[in-house]
């Protein structure tokens, strides 16, 4: 077997509306509603499905919980511009810009937290 790519992931969140607002307003993701009124966020060729704490869909992670994710997104805009946009949105920068290692090489990253305190890394490949 050879895995090709990540299609989607699931975030368990405390408040669906707050999460959708943050990811749409700050990160430019597109809100999605699909089968049975489920909610998610689209970006590029991927998506994030959202589960609300205590109302998760089956099957689910063995121990789902809000604030347990650490995610890295590659952004098209220069990281300096991303940093400035985050500050303009009132988002506290956890760290960065700093050099790190991505899946295919060196990256320049800024770190922030979403409303559930998930760690979000926004990066450009160097």
Automatic annotation (TrEMBL):
Domain annotation VOC: ranges: 5-125
Superkingdom, taxonomy of origin: Bacteria
Signal peptide: none
One of the Pfam families matching this protein, by short name: Glyoxalase
UniProt xrefs under PROSITE patterns: VOC (PS51819)
Upper taxonomic lineage: Bacteria, Bacillati, Actinomycetota, Actinomycetes, Propionibacteriales
UniProt-recorded name of the protein: VOC family protein
Organism: Kribbella capetownensis
InterPro entries assigned to the protein according to its UniProt record, in alphabetical order: Glyas_Bleomycin-R_OHBP_Dase (IPR029068), Glyas_Fos-R_dOase_dom (IPR004360), GlyoxalaseI/FosfomycinResist (IPR050383), VOC_core (IPR037523)
């Amino acid at each position: 077997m050879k895995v090709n790519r990540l299609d989607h992931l699931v975030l368990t969140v405390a408040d669906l509306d707050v999460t959708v607002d943050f990811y749409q307003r700050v990160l430019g993701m597109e809100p999605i509603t699909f089968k049975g009124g489920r909610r998610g966020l689209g970006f590029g060729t991927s998506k994030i499905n959202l589960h609300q704490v205590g109302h998760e869909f089956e099957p689910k992670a063995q121990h789902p919980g809000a604030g347990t994710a650490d995610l890295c997104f590659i952004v098209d805009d220069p990281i300096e511009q991303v940093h400035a946009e985050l500050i303009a949105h009132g988002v506290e920068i956890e760290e960065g810009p700093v050099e790190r290692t991505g899946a295919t090489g060196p990256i320049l990253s800024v770190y922030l937290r979403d409303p559930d305190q998930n760690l979000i890394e926004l990066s450009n490949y160097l």
